[in-house]
Amino acid sequence: MDMTSHMTSHFNDAIDAFKASSRELAEPLSAAVDLLFGALANDGKILACGNGGSAADAQHFIAELVGRFERDRLPLAGVALNTDTSILTAVGNDYGFDSIFERQVNALGRPGDILVAISTSGNSPNIIRSIEAAHDREMSVIALTGKGGGTITDLLHETDIHLCVPHERTMRIQEVHIMLLHALCDGIDALLLGDTL
Q1: In what helix (H) or strand (E) does residue 80 lie, and over which residues does it extend?
Q2: Which parts of 86-184 are beta strand (E)?
């Protein structure tokens, strides 16, 4: 095996994934910025969740909101639902792993808040249940998926936004997801602070 060629193929495949995503997702991504900004401007908050690499993405996204992205600004209200080990283990132990995010959405979510739900397959049971809980709480959902969107596609309402990466490989989907989350942060900052591009 020519390892250099193998590594080069990763760059080429990633470039193709980003190009396809730019064609399909620029418009819903812009709508997602408006949805998030509207919630924050009306004293709402952002809840985010995911499993594995998607958990890291949810935590990263919320850190950019509460801390800062590229420019200094006031902290923005956000909570990553996959970071509190006491809640995760208590709820997982007492109610089952599928309830770990649903329970927190029911506790923390309010009408006008936004749930950012991340699942590369679109089929994660605990993400599905968090979306259902968000709808019960009159929250809108921004779902980041791939692989066609899975079960999550059929759960979303007209007021929700689906950012489904047009790719089948988990690593490519996750790479695009982090760019989408960075773009959301940049868009929010542009509306708050003015566009610098």
Answers
A1: strand 78-80
A2: 114-118, 140-146, 161-165
Contact 82, 21 (CB under 8 A): no
Domains of the chain: which residue ranges? Answer: 3-193
Q: Residues 95-138: pLDDT tens digits? A: 999 999 999 999 999 999 999 999 999 999 999 999 999 999 99
Contact 102, 134 (CB under 8 A): no
CB 166 within 8 A of CB 21: yes
* Residue 139: partners with Cβ closer than 8 Å, 6 or more residues away: 47, 105, 109, 110, 111, 112, 113, 114, 115
- pLDDT tens-digit readout, 137-169: 999 999 999 999 999 999 999 999 999 999 999
CB 146 within 8 A of CB 168: yes
Token pair recorded at residue 65: 């909101």
Query: CA–CA separation, 91 vs 38, rounded Å?
Result: 31
Read off the DSSP letter of residue 28: H
Q: How far apart are CA 98 and CA 159, in angstroms?
A: 25
3-193: CATH class: alpha beta
pTM for the model:
0.97
State both tokens at 22.
Answer: 């730019």
